[in-house]
């Protein structure tokens, strides 16, 4: 009879431990599952945004609109991934019961996947910053190229006016030189073309002087176009990496999500696919199991004692 009572006691203790440990573990896993789902949604949006920027640049090139879209997209926030992998208690100690840490406090394979996704997002941010720098540089070069083209038309117009005046005759009233607009002079000086200003005589440009200015501006426009083409190649390379990193990070997190859901379905008391259970909740459950087992044992013994007393009477 005593052996049977002891067996009942052990069964009750074990059942309470299992329910307590697994209940706590399921709650933790559900919270982590919810946080990971939130992160996956956010990273998926970032990946879609990267693809949209790529399509916008391919369709419209680099302009104020694409630069504004890049700036409005903002920086990639990876703080939630840190929160997911590294859960701390009030003393800032690593919580060993996390589904993504093993008994030594080091990351499991799922934790490594999330950390790898974080690294990919950080690389995505770096390449995004690189692309943004090239976009700003390209936009600035395009603006200067447009200004140079406008001044080139001015120089050609001035030269043609002098040619027309010369063909009209040898009158003393024929104009043989013209001044250069102030904005044009400032542009040439600010962009390394001040040398052509030496073709002027007393601040006036004759036909030959305007030819020098025209040649200088044409060379500048050609050089700027080549520079823009080179920068476009670098910018597109950065954008391709940005798109690749965000897409890969999203895929990595989705795989981690699947692994977490698989772990949730296959949990046991002391391990779940090689992952340990929180020590404090498990100990609490064990103590509760012992106490309830003792209570159940006492009730059984008391009931049997009453039954024996009744038979004797």
Walk me through what this model shows.
- It is a single chain.
- The chain has a two-stranded antiparallel sheet with strand order 1-2.
- The protein has 313 residues and is mainly alpha-helical.
- It has one domain.
- It is rod-shaped.
- The protein contains seven helices and two strands, in the order H-H-H-H-E-H-E-H-H.
Provide tags for this entry.
single chain; 313 residues; mainly alpha; 2 strands; 76% helix; rod-shaped
Compact description:
Helices cover 76% and strands 1% of the residues. The protein has seven helices and two strands; from the N terminus they run H-H-H-H-E-H-E-H-H.
Distance between the termini: 22 Å
User: DSSP strand (E) fraction?
Assistant: under 5%
In round numbers, the mean pLDDT is: 74
Structural class: mainly alpha
Global outline = rod-shaped
Radius of gyration, Cα only, in angstroms?
39 Å
Poorly predicted runs: 18-24, 88-107, 267-281
* Widest sheet, order of strands: 1-2
- Helix and strand element order: HHHHEHEHH
Fraction of residues in helix: over 70%
Q: How many domain regions?
A: 1
Let me know the largest β-sheet.
2 strands, antiparallel
| Helix segment tally | 7
The tally of strands reads 2
Secondary-structure topology with pairs:
Blueprint: H1 2-60, H2 64-73, H3 79-85, H4 109-167, E1 178-179, H5 182-190, E2 204-205, H6 207-265, H7 279-312
Antiparallel strand pairs: 1-2
């Amino acid at each position: 009879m005593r052996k049977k009572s002891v067996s009942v006691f052990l069964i009750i203790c074990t059942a309470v431990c299992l329910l307590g440990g697994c209940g706590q573990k399921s709650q933790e896993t559900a919270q982590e599952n919810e946080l990971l789902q939130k992160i996956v949604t956010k990273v998926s949006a970032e990946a879609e945004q990267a693809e949209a920027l790529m399509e916008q640049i391919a369709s419209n090139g680099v302009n104020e609109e694409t630069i504004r879209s890049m700036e409005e997209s903002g920086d990639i926030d990876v703080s939630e991934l840190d929160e997911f992998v590294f859960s701390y208690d009030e003393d800032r100690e690593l919580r060993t019961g996390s589904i993504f840490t093993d008994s030594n406090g080091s990351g499991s394979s799922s934790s490594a996947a999330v950390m790898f996704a974080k690294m990919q997002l950080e690389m995505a941010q770096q390449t995004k910053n690189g692309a943004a720098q090239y976009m700003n540089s390209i936009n600035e070069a395009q603006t200067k190229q447009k200004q140079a083209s406008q001044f080139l038309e001015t120089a050609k117009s001035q030269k043609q006016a002098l040619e027309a005046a010369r063909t009209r005759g040898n009158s003393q009233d024929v104009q043989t030189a013209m001044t250069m607009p102030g904005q044009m002079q400032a542009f040439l000086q600010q962009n390394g073309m001040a040398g052509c200003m030496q073709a002027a005589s007393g601040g006036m440009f004759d036909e030959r002087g305007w030819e020098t200015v025209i040649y200088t501006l044409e060379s500048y426009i050609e050089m700027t176009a080549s520079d823009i083409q080179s920068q476009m190649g670098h910018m597109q390379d950065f954008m391709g990496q940005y798109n690749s990193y965000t897409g890969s990070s999203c895929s990595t997190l989705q795989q981690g999500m699947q692994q977490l859901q698989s772990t949730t379905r296959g949990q046991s008391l002391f391990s779940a696919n090689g992952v340990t259970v929180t020590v404090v909740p498990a100990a609490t459950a064990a103590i509760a199991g012992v106490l309830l087992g003792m209570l159940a044992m006492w009730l059984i013994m008391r009931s049997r004692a009453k039954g024996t007393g009744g038979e004797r009477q």
